[in-house]
Design brief:
Layout lengths: L1 E6 L6 H10 L4 H8 L4 E2 L1 E10 L2 E10 L8 E2 L23 H9 L5 H22 L14 H17 L3 E4 L2 E2 L4 E4 L2 E4 L3 H6 L5 E2 L10 H10 L2 E2 L6 E10 L9 E9 L8 E8 L5 H13 L3 E8 L5 E10 L3 H11 L6 E5 L5 E9 L2 E10 L2 E7 L1 H11 L3 H16 L2
Parallel strand pairs: 1-6, 2-5, 6-11, 7-10
Antiparallel strand pairs: 1-13, 3-4, 8-9, 12-13, 14-16, 14-17, 15-16, 18-19, 19-20
């Protein structure tokens, strides 16, 4: 699968994304040709190779020509600085609303996929701004994100992703920077309120760099595009690395490092935990009750292991295999229902055989059987215990005979 991984150790902004994608091989002429379909005048692309703390990177900026004609959509009044430098929005002459920007995109000759993705990002921005300022999305003034450079950044990003035929996007945790910024609403903390709103449910952190490293446009783009946040996924094979430069010169390289490659599926379920706790001071009858509660909560398996703890005390280790989504619920059950005061957990993968349930007929009646397949071959046959128990009790025949008869019949019918 054709994939990207954004490594955001110095944050992310619209022009950093665009610069990184051009650095990966999107021709500038092609990008400009496609951007011309927006029918926006009053700007030109500035592309140069720069060095950031010793790392070569592509710097792509949108230069605003305030003397441009007005024969097309001219947004040069709204030049924003979403390129890792301070805002001074009080000087803007004109504001634009979401319908204006969506109209420009809709009236363009770009393909529908690019149009829809671009509009979705602007809607995310408007939604965040609306919540922060207590207005509707239609009332939002795009004084921070409505300028021609941000339209170019957002639409240009979608053009580049389409050119590279990217199927999946991953992203690291985001370094948002720290300190304060000036904007039309005064002095605001980093991340700015709209950026913070966009980063809900996204892992980010701050280091002692007194700059805004994640801009509203960068946040809107990456939260819309990224399928997952965290470490580079297992099975990601890098083919090429691109660097998009930000404006700042920092103690760290102010670049967005972008890995382009293949995301190869890794066998085994990637989203599982084993959660464990050692218990040496509880009535063992309670463990049966806790096991039932855990299974009812949806865990995949629960097991008990006799262990010996400090001072030679016998104890039980309770282990739970579960999806990560249930971690908080399982923690609540263990801490509330047992005497433990702590637990541990770790990521695991597992291989499981494909399986299906069939019914077979034996002389005492019908019973279900679980068939397991590995690489297309039948590898295991397991009679359903409860079905066989019912047949054994009804026919007054030893259960072990019923189990074996059912297994042999399934083996005969399904050819192990």
């Amino acid at each position: 699968m054709n994939a990207l991984y954004f490594d955001c150790f110095a944050g992310i902004s619209g022009n950093m994304i665009l610069g990184a994608l051009v650095d990966l091989g999107v021709p500038t002429d092609y990008l400009q040709q496609e951007l011309n379909k927006l029918n926006i005048s009053g700007y030109k692309l500035q592309l140069e190779q720069v060095s950031k703390a010793g790392i070569r990177a592509t710097y792509l900026d949108v230069q605003i020509d305030n003397g441009a004609g007005h024969d097309h959509h001219n947004l040069s009044h709204d030049h924003n600085h979403d390129h890792n430098h301070n805002y001074d929005h009080g000087t803007f002459q004109q504001y634009r609303h979401l319908p204006d920007i969506l109209g420009i995109i809709d009236q363009s000759q770009l393909n529908e996929k690019i149009k829809e993705a671009s509009k979705a990002v602007f809607y995310c921005l408007a939604k965040a701004e609306a919540k922060v300022h207590g207005v509707t999305v239609e009332q939002v003034h795009f004084h921070e994100v409505g300028a021609v450079d941000t339209i170019v950044d957002i639409v240009g990003t979608m053009i580049c992703l389409d050119y590279l035929q990217i199927e999946k996007i991953y992203c690291s945790q985001l370094n948002v920077g720290s300190g304060f910024i000036k904007c039309a609403h005064g002095v605001l903390p980093v991340p700015a309120p709209a950026t913070a709103e966009l980063l809900n449910n996204v892992p980010y952190y701050s280091i002692d760099v007194q700059k805004e490293l994640v801009t509203p446009t960068g946040a809107a783009l990456i939260t819309y595009l990224a399928n997952e946040f965290g470490d580079k996924p297992a099975g990601f094979i890098t083919r090429k690395i691109g660097y998009g430069a930000g404006t700042w010169d920092l103690e760290i390289p102010n670049v967005l490092r972008t890995f382009w490659g293949d995301s190869v599926p890794v066998s085994g379920s990637p989203n599982l935990l084993v959660m464990e706790s050692n218990i040496d001071d509880m009535n063992p009858q309670i463990l049966g009750y806790v096991t039932e509660k855990l299974l009812a909560a949806g865990v995949l398996d629960v097991w008990l292991t006799p262990i010996q703890m400090k001072k030679g005390r016998p104890a039980q280790k309770i282990s739970i295999l579960t999806d990560k989504d249930l971690k908080e619920q399982i923690t609540d059950i263990l801490l509330n229902e047992t005497t433990t005061i702590g637990l541990r957990y770790y990521n695991v993968r597992r291989e499981i055989a494909e399986r299906k349930i069939v019914e077979v007929q034996v002389e005492w009646g019908q019973a279900r059987v679980k068939l397991a397949y590995h690489r297309g071959e039948l590898c295991n046959i397991t009679p359903e215990y409860e079905d066989c128990r019912v047949l054994a009790e009804r026919a007054k025949v030893p259960l072990k005979l019923i189990l074996e008869a059912v297994r042999q019949q399934a083996l005969k019918e399904y050819q192990m």
